[in-house]
């Protein structure tokens, strides 16, 4: 394993509540700030523009083939679409197929979206429960795409149509083949990052996880960068689970995205912790960046 502690991430911008779901698009990094309920786009000079305000709390972001932005609205179980004028409308209502707060999302080049959900009341201290992944088709129809996932979180689509889902509380990345009709098949473990905790107690699970994969992004060599939500680091992981690289961030890191003009800037969503009661009243979250060698590939 090539550990690279000498590479110190630098601060791009700070003063946020809790950043998640970064996406590089059209020369800027687009990111959700949970507790200010804003989607923000940040350029290479650190200038930020508020793109949308989402009272239901924004999370996963993605783009339709025509360039319109899709935004997960977590608490009311909806996916919203932003038109050219900047107004938001409902794209899909997931309340009939999910009960938990919505989470991250990935959108493919046909406009199909896969959306995760918490599956249980994480912030309220409920027992850990596995849950589903939902597919949203371009016409807004919804269907359960996969079941029995341990907190489906960040997702990527690798070249060739392979969907990889980070299962945070299972400590693994799980892959599916995407069919022409959008159906998922060939479920398999892409990388097992330590033993899966066998407990319903979230605190115990967190203590046992060797890696807690949160947000992820893919590079041009087929590796996946993984934000480890409990160990203050990002890992570059090969299929099969070998750790190719590690960057110590020095604080909590919950999502990552390759971007910049050459795709070699690894952006990091950092904060001291993830608990809502700790993050909501303060503005301690930062967007960090570090240069890496292999550029971005795949989606998002």
Automatic annotation (TrEMBL):
InterPro entries: 6-blade_b-propeller_TolB-like (IPR011042), SGL (IPR013658), SMP-30 (IPR005511), SMP-30/CGR1_Lactonase (IPR051262). Keywords: Hydrolase. Gene3D superfamilies: TolB, C-terminal domain. Signal peptide: none annotated. Pfam families: SGL (PF08450). Residues 20-271 form the SMP-30/Gluconolactonase/LRE-like region domain. SUPFAM superfamilies: Calcium-dependent phosphotriesterase. The keyword Hydrolase applies. Belongs to the SMP-30/CGR1 family. This is SMP-30/gluconolactonase/LRE family protein.
């Amino acid at each position: 394993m090539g550990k690279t502690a000498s590479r110190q991430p630098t601060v791009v911008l700070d003063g946020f509540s809790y950043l998640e779901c970064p996406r590089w698009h059209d020369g800027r990094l687009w990111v959700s700030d949970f507790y200010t309920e804003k989607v923000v786009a940040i350029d290479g000079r650190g200038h930020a523009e508020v793109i949308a305000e989402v009272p239901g709390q924004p999370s996963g972001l993605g783009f339709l083939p025509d360039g319109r932005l899709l935004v997960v609205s977590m608490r009311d179980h909806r996916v919203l679409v932003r038109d050219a004028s900047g107004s938001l409308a409902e794209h899909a209502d997931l309340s009939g197929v999910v009960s938990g707060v919505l989470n991250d999302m990935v959108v493919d080049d046909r406009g199909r979206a896969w959306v995760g959900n918490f599956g249980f009341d994480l912030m309220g201290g409920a027992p850990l429960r596995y849950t589903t992944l939902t597919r949203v088709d371009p016409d807004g129809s919804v269907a359960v795409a996969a079941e029995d996932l341990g907190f489906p979180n960040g997702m990527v689509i690798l070249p060739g149509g392979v969907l990889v889902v980070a299962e945070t509380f299972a400590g693994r990345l799980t892959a599916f083949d995407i069919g022409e009709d959008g159906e998922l098949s060939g479920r398999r473990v892409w990388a097992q990052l330590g033993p899966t905790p066998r407990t319903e107690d979230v605190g115990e699970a967190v203590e046992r996880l060797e890696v807690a994969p949160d947000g992820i992004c893919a590079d041009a060599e087929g590796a996946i960068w993984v934000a480890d939500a409990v160990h203050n680091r990002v890992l570059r992981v090969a299929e099969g689970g070998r750790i190719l690289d590690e960057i110590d961030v020095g604080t909590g890191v919950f999502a990552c995205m390759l971007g910049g003009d050459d795709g070699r800037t690894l952006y990091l969503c950092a904060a001291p912790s993830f608990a809502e009661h700790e993050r909501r009243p303060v503005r301690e979250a930062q967007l960090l960046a570090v240069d890496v060698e292999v550029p971005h590939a795949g989606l998002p």
